[in-house]
Amino acid sequence: MHLFVVLIVDVVYMCIDSYVCLQTLYECEILLNQHDQTVRKDAVPSDTLNIIDIDNLYDVFLTSMSDDLHTPVVLAGLSDPLKSINDLLHTHKGKKQQFRIESLAALKKSIGDVLTVLGLMPSSYYEISTPELRIDSAIRHPTNFSKFLFNTGVALVLQQLKEKALKHANVTEDEILQKIEERATARIQKKYAKSNAIRKDLAVVGIALMDSPNETTWRPSITLPLQEQL
Known about the structure:
Blueprint (H helix, E strand, L loop, with lengths): L2 H30 L4 H5 L12 H13 L4 H6 L2 H12 L1 H4 L4 H19 L16 H4 L3 H10 L2 H16 L3 H16 L3 H13 L2 E5 L4 E5 L3 H6 L1
GO molecular function, one term: ATP binding
Keywords: Aminoacyl-tRNA synthetase, Ligase, Signal
Organism: Trifolium pratense (Red clover)
């Protein structure tokens, strides 16, 4: 693959992976804010959770960086702890898990520590400063993207990444939501070919559909043609 394409793919992957990380942490923050801050302060992961070793997450990250792994690879390595957070947030089993809040707080802190070192952790989840860069210019270079993330609240980062994806895909969010409804109807009617076609059509333009037990949402993604080049 041409070097320029490789660099573009790396930056795009960093944007997408950052979106997934921040969206998950944002949902986690909203839930944790509903609980006693004293519980969060000294949160310790429960031994009863059959998930990743939270205590060693940061050490593994440092080892990866010392092996000269670039940022997109490190971000991809966060998939297991992010999945654990999503399970605790959204699945029936996760919601019933003992020490759920403590485990969420510990996972969130560990992932946040990694993103902070990478320069990908915004300074706030809610309050935002006036960013010196918008997402349009920030995604052209990893350093700019890190600066943009730090100066901008998570909510605005997620919003701008979504807006950029919609513009690139030449669709509106209402059109995507309509497609999600059409796909849900097709699945109920067991028209799986139509359901798969809707998902693929959106994937082609960089829109990924994410199914959960309660709903289907969308997020920015690598376009399907670009994925096939990798």
